[in-house]
Amino acid sequence: MDLRYEFYIGGTPEQVWKVLISPEETKKIYAGCVIRSTFKHGDPLQYVGPGLEGNETVHVYGTILEFERNKVFSYTQNTGKAYISNDKNYESRISFRLEPAGACTKLTLIHDQWSEKDPSYENSKKAWWLILCNSKSLVETGKTLDLGVDNWHDELVVQPE
């Protein structure tokens, strides 16, 4: 049930890292959502942006588990209340790992520790491909992909219960 993705990106770990944790860059790869966190172990994290509740919709929130600049970024994940009313019942873990690979960076994403019957699992499986492809494109070309819609995350969300 774990989701695991490995991407080789034509850029340095520092360039890939910036795309993953900078609010300006996350806004580009997460369909308008910015990341908010101190990035200190145990502190909260949110991805906030346009959605069902307006421009300040909390799409995802959690707690920082591990943060080692340019190497490891891990946090718990809950889907925001705009999509799942009993969001506390469904927590998973997301881990990004970066490793130099020649002139490239190997980005490994592991999304695991899923709660049984988590309603966001199938949509997460779809969304990670879009996010990771956008990340690769942004690092390598300076642009994200034209996916044909402004807020593709609205098409993937679990509807409120």
Automatic annotation (TrEMBL):
Belongs to the AHA1 family. Residues 12-128 form the Activator of Hsp90 ATPase homologue 1/2-like C-terminal domain. Gene3D superfamilies: 3.30.530.20. InterPro entries: ASHA1/2-like_C, START-like_dom_sf. This is Activator of Hsp90 ATPase homologue 1/2-like C-terminal domain-containing protein.
